[in-house]
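Two quick folds needed for the group meeting slides. Do the first one here.
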Amino acid sequence: MASVWHVDRDGGPVGPLSATQLKQMADEGRLKPTDRVSKDEGAWIVASAVKGLFRAPVAGDEARDQSPPPGSSLQAERSDRGADVEPAAPSRPKGLWGRLGDVVNDATVGMQAAAASARERAAKETAPPPASSASDGEPAPVKPKPKGLLDRVGDAVKDATRRAQTAADSTPDGPTKPAKPKLTRRHLWILAAVGGVGFLLLVTISLVSLVMMGREVSLARTIDLPKEQYGSVHFLPDGKRAIISSSKAIHVWDLNTGQKVRTIAKREHDFIKYACDLSADGSVALAGDRKLTLYDIESGQERWSLEAGGLAEPQADMKQALTVKGHMQTLIDGQLVSIDGVRVAPPASGADLKKLQVVHAGCTLQVWDLEARTKTREFKGPSPGLWHAAISPDGGRAALWYYDIKAVSDLPNIVNELVGSPLRIWDLKAGKELLTFAERGQGVAGCLFAPDGKRLLSRHENGDLTLWDAGTGKEVRRLTGHTGGTPLAVFSADGHRVLSGGMDKTVRLWDAETGKVLHQWNSFGDKLSALALSPKGDRAITVDGDDSKMQVWNVPKR
C-alpha cells in the first residue's frame, strides 16, 4: 500500500499526496526543507528529515554522473523508495542537554509556525478557495481541521522526541545510552549551597521545637514511694535530691535515678506525720511531734533530741524554733473531767455520757535555742483555740492562727466544726501581739512567710491564696483559681513566685508580683499531700498521698 503524505507549509496545508507528488513538489521548489510533513497521519516532521526528498548539492561532475537523470524510471523509483524510509540518523548522537535543546527549539519553531499559519488563514478566510490544476496532476488540497496552539506545541515536542529516539536506534552499534551530564565546579557550588540551606533549615526547625517544648511543664519522672502517709517534701540545695517525711520515716531520694539514697529516721508507731523542716544549707533536718530531733542529712545520724512537746516551726538557719502546745479540755454533760488528758474529776452521777465535748482552752508558746538546746521563753498564747504558727526568717516574729474545734454529737460519732480566726502577728521577744489582720484572714488553714519576711501567704478553705503585708496586716493580692478545698503552697527561693496545688488536682505556678498564673498543669492521683519547688525554680515535686507516688516536673523559668 502506497504511503499517504500531508504537507503543512506557509501557503496552507496540502494533502493527501503520494510519494511521487511529494517528490515533485520538492523538485519544483513548492516544498521547502523547513516545511512540515506527515506520513500516514503520523507525527509531523520537517521535510528536510525525509531521506531522498531533496537533492543534496555535491561538488564535481563525477558525483553528478552517479545520480540518475531527472524524470527517469530509476529516479522515480528512488524517489518513491527514498520517501518511505525513516529520517536519517545524525552522524554523532547528541547528549542529554543537546536533546533537550532540540525539544525546546522544535517547540519554539512549532509555535511560530502555528502563529504564522493562523494569521495567514485569517487573512484568506474571505477569499475563494484556489482551483485545482488538472494539468500537473496535483489533487485539490484538502484543508484538515486546524489544531490549537497547545496541540501544535505537543506535536512539536513529540516530533523532537521521536527524532532523538530514531537517531539513537539507527547507529551501527545499536541504541546509544544517553551521556551522563558532567558535574562542573558550578554544579558543585550549587549542590553545596542547597545542602547548606537545607541544613540551616533543619537546625532552625529543631531549635524552634526545643524552644516550644521548653515553654511547657513536662513530667520528668514518677517515683514509687513506700506505702506511708506523707507530710512534707523539700529539695536539697543541689536540686538533684529531695528529703520527704512520712508517718514512719524520713527518706532521702535521688530524683535523677528514682532510687532511695537512705532512710534517716524511723518510727515505731503510725500516728502523727513527721513535721520535718530543712535548714537553708541543706545540712540538717529538724523533725518533731512530741519531741524535737535534729538529723544530719549526709550521714543520716541523729545529732540531738529535746523533749519539747508540740509541733516545731524553726527559722531557716536552724538557730531558733517555736513550738505551740495546745491545751485540750474534755467535758461530759457540761462538766470538766480532764485537761490535756489529765483527769480532773469523775463524771457526775447520772451524767449523760453521750453529751461529750472537746474544746481547746488555750495554748503555750515556747521559744527554743537550738544551738544551746534550751528553752529561752514561754508565754501564754492568744484566746482559746487550736493554734498554729509560722516563724519569720529572722526568728523575731510569728504569725498565729487557729481553728477552734467544737465537737458535740451523740457518741460514738463525733463531728468537728472548725471555726477560724484572723491572722495575728506576735513579737516573740516581748511575748505580745503586734497586730491583727483584716477579716479576710478568717478561715485560714495555713500560712507561711516569704523568704524576705516582708510578706505572708495564707491558705483558705475556699481554695484562695492571699498575700499580706507582714508589717501592716493589709491585703496585697489574692490568688484565686483553686476549688474544692484548701490548697498547699510554697514560695520560690527568691520569693517572686508561688507554687500551689489544690484539691481540684491542678498545680499552678504564680507570679507573686502580678498574681498572674505562669503555668498550670494537672497532678496525678486524688490527694496531693506535699509539694516543693527547687532552689533554681526549674523543677517541682508533687506527692500523691493515696497512691504513694512522687512526681518530678521540669518547669520553665519563664
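Then this one, please, same format:
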Amino acid sequence: MELDCLFVHVPKMNNRYKPFGDTLYVKSMAIGLLAMADKLQREGFAAQVVHMGVEYVAGKFDIYEYVRETRARVVGFSLHWHPQSYDVIETARLVKEKCPGVFVLLGGLTASYFSDEIMQEYKFIDGIIKGDGETPVVSLVDKIKKQDADLSTVPNLLWRNVGAVVNNGISYVAEDEEINDLNYMSYSLLKNHRIYIDVFGRSPANYLKGASPSFNTMRRSKPSVIMPIARGCSANCKWCGGSAHAHKLNSGRKRYIFRSYDRVLTDIRQAQEQGFGILHFAHYSHPDETAYYVELFKALRNENIKVDAYFECSALPTRELVDAFVETFTDRTSSVMCLSRMAPGEKVRKLNVGRFYTNDELFDILAYMDSKGVRMELTFTLGMPGETEDEIPKLVAFRKKILTGIKHVRSSVVLTSQIEPGSQWFLRPERFGIQTDLRKFSDFHKFHSISNSYYTHLGYSIPGYFRDGKSDSIELFRSRIQSVRCKYFCLLSGNRIGYGANVLGRAKCLALSIFWGLRLGRFLPGRTSN
C-alpha cells in the first residue's frame, strides 16, 4: 500500500493518574481527521489514519517503519490539545530524521495558535495548516504528489521556501456547504479501527496502561462517539481554548454554524453501523441553540433511530430542550444530560463562564430535569479565578444541597482546569488574577515532557487563594488544590457526601495505589490525590 497522506494521532503517552498509575491521555482523536482522510480519498488520493494509542494496545508497532512501508508522501500530525505537545513534536522529529523525504505537517488548535513559533523553532516541521484544513490539505497533497515546490497557493499554510518560513495567510474558512459535504464516520480509514471503537470508545478518559482492554472497558457496555454537529463555538468560556474568540484567532471563524439535519442523521446511522451505541453531543453552549436540537431529536424519532445520548451542556438547558431529550431518549438506559463546570459562587461564575446563570436558575432546571426522570452527571470546578479558600466550604454545601435534593444524579465530580492556549485565562492572566509560566509553545512542550506527569498539573496559580499566602508558586498551588480535592471531593467516594465518605474514598485510593504499584513493579507510597 502506498499512501499520499498518512494522518497520525499521538496521545500523551506517559501520563500519571493516581491511584492507578501510568495512563494514555487524550485518546480521542480530533473528529476532523477521518473527515479529511475521507475527503482526500474522494479526491483520488490514498489516505489513512494511524492512532498511536490504538497501536500501543494492538501490539508492537513502529511508526517510522510504517511510514517507509507505505511510502507516505505527507505525514500529518494532529496537534489539537496541548497535552499532546511533547509526544507529537518528538514523534514528528524522529519521523523526519528517519524518513527525511516525507513532508511533515501539523494541524489542530494548538498547532494553529503557536504556528509561527513552531515553524521558527522546530526546523523539522515542514508545514502547518492553520485553522480549517479540509480544502487546504487536498491542495497540499496534490502539490506534493506532483513534486510542485511552489506551495504559495495552498490556503492557510505556513511552509518553508529555501529555508525561509512563508505564511500564506488564512483564506479558507469552512462554510455550511463544506461541512455538510464531510464524512466524519469513515472508520475503515483508521488502522485497527475496531480497537478504537470497542476499546477506546468504552474506556475512561485515562486508559490504564497496566490493565487489559477488558479491565479498561468494564464500566461501559456501549462505545460512544462525539457527534460533529457544528463548527466553532457560540460562547466564550474563559478557560477554553476552543471558544468563539479562540476560533476567530486560530481560523478566522466569525460565526458558529450547524450542520444540516440530513447530514447529521446520515452520520448517526453510520455510527450505529460501526457499533457506536452512545452519541456524545458536546456543543450546547447557549439557550439559542435549543431549536436546532429540538428539531434534530424530532428527526431521530421520525426516523425511528434508537440510540443513547450523552448530552453535555456548558449553558443551562431550557425546559423545551429537556422535554425533547426525554421524549427522544426516555427509554434508553444509558442516556444522560451533563451540566459541566459549575461553581457555587455567582461572582466566580460571572467572571469565568460563557453564559451566566443564577443559582436560582440552576436549581430550577435541576428540579425540572429530576421531575422528568432525566439521569444527570454534574461536574464542578475547583480553583477558578475569583475564588479564594473561603469558597471551599461553600462548594461542599452547594454540592450537598444538590445531591440531597435531586434524585437522578448519576455522578457528581469536582475537577480542576488546565490553562489552555488561546483561552482568555492564557491571553489575559492579569485580568483573572492568574500567574502562569506557560506563555510559549516551548513552555507547553517542556511542561508535558516530564516522565509520567500528572494530568492534574494546572499550569497556573492564583496568588492569595489560600489565607496563609504560601501558595503563590504554581507547583505548590497545584499540590494544595489537589489536596483539597482529595480531602473533600474524593472521586472514589462517588455521590456519597460527608467526611466519612471521603475517608473511605481515600482509603480505597491508597489500596488501589498499592495494588497497581505492585502489579506494575513499583510502589506508590503515601496518600494520593485523585
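Slide caption for protein two: The chain has three domains: 5-176, 221-489, 497-530.
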